[in-house]
Amino acid sequence: MEGAAVGEARTVRADARRNIEKLLCAAAEVFGERGLHAPLDAIAQRAGVSTGTIYHRFGSREGLIDAVVPQYAEERLDAAAGRALACADPWEGFAQYVERVCELQVQNLALNDVISRNHPGTARLAEVCHRSQEQARRIAERAQADGSLRADFAAEDLLFVFWSTAMLVRFTAEDAPDAWRRSLAFTLDGLRSEGARPLPTAALTPEQVERVMQSRGGA
Predict the structure, then answer these.
(1) Nearest Cα to 64, choosing from 110, 99, 112?
(2) pLDDT tens digits, residue range 55-106?
(3) Domains of the chain in sequence order
């Protein structure tokens, strides 16, 4: 009897591990397709488990997001920043970085929400966003030191670019999936130092960015 009990316990543990693996795979797929506000019921259905299993295993939507998204996002944003900083031409590095981040927004709606900061607040995603912001600052400062990026640009200004792309991705995906590229081309031309006119207002401070994120429900 004791051996049977041990065997049953091992079976339960194995089933639990399989359920967790199925949930993680399903969450990555559904979040990628529908964004971080996708219904948890849709994730549970794809995984073939009950919605209650999500709460039992991860505690909340935020717990599930933290288990699935931060590492995926960090790897891709780090790769984009690494390529930009390795580029011999600082302006090309900056432009390639911005374009690559926008491409990530298009390819995966979970990343779209992370990059545009439209997601439930989680500690790990907040760390990823902060790390990405500091990388973007280094990339921008490099292009400014080169004299190719306008001197009054701030890394916080990139949020406007990514918010704009986030909206374009969601509303033009079916009819004009490349519309964001045209918009971004206009933006990048406007960021060149040559012929730049003075801006009518200052950039947001990091503190202002944080308040804006909190007011719109982001991290």
Answers:
(1) 110
(2) 999 999 999 999 999 999 999 999 999 999 999 999 999 999 999 999 999 9
(3) 1-59 (1.10.10.60), 69-215 (1.10.357.10)
